[in-house]
């Protein structure tokens, strides 16, 4: 289980999530993504990052089983801080970040891709934020970067998912390709970006972040406050226990 980085042609960093069976990340995994993004941004020769995953799906969010087998609130606080750090590091990475999404992208996975600069998806990819079903809140900030407001609200309340192909008309997913072509399609866009002057790319990333209408870091942190309230009230524990007892394979 790991977050690994491979450097391609001295210009492209490929960060891979590999946490079988469903890439539901433990606390350490979220911080490892943050570290990988921070490190990529510090390397002056790098011009773009590709965030991808091995296995059945891109990301199933937080490892709820880790949270439920940990006494006290250490795992909860760790997951909240880790997600915040990972999302923030992607958004603030000094070079563009491309998400290459396969299969499911749920909960915290939406937080990751919502802060990326470009999204390429496989034809089996779908997105959703089932936090309401888990007694938690979060990632509406990032879902709202993928779909319009009213659709975001409906998806949030109902925990519905949306296929990658349906996001192309919204402009949030650049293209959808067969699963076998996902890596090559993502690399093609990465190489197109990597051909640019790295000084201009870094200035462009800072400029685009500077004109964003919503401060995604503060917005997400605000959401997390309601998650803590639900946990203190015992509501979130009830839903997480039910999820673990159900034996489902996907965590969010």
Automatic annotation (TrEMBL):
Membrane-traversing stretches: none
Annotated organism of origin: Rhodococcus sovatensis
CDD domains given in the database record: crotonase-like
Presence of keyword Glycosyltransferase: no
Family classification: Belongs to the enoyl-CoA hydratase/isomerase family.
Organism domain of life: Bacteria
Name of the protein in its database record: Enoyl-CoA hydratase family protein
Keywords tagged on the record: Lipid metabolism, Lyase
């Amino acid at each position: 289980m790991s977050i690994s980085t491979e450097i391609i042609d001295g210009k492209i960093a490929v960060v891979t999530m590999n946490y079988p069976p469903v890439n539901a990340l433990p606390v350490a995994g979220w911080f490892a993504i943050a570290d990988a993004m921070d490190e990529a941004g510090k390397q002056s020769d790098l011009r773009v990052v590709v965030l991808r995953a091995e296995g059945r799906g891109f990301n199933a969010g937080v490892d709820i089983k880790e949270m439920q087998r940990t006494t006290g609130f250490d795992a909860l606080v760790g997951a909240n801080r880790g997600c915040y750090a990972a999302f923030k590091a992607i958004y603030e990475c000094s070079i563009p970040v491309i998400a290459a999404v396969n299969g499911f992208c749920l909960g915290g996975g939406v937080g990751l891709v919502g802060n990326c600069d470009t999204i390429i998806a496989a034809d089996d990819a779908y997105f959703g934020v089932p936090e309401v079903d888990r007694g938690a809140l979060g990632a509406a900030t990032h879902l709202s970067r993928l779909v319009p407001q009213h659709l975001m609200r409906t998806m949030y309340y109902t925990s519905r998912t949306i296929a990658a192909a349906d996001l192309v008309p919204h402009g949030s997913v650049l293209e959808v390709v067969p699963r076998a072509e996902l890596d090559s399609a993502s690399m093609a866009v990465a190489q197109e970006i990597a051909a640019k002057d790295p000084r201009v790319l870094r200035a462009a990333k800072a400029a685009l972040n500077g004109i964003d209408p919503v401060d995604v870091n503060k917005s997400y942190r605000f959401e997390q406050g309601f998650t803590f309230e639900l946990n203190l009230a015992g509501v979130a524990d009830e839903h997480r226990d039910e999820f673990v007892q159900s034996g489902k394979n996907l965590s969010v």
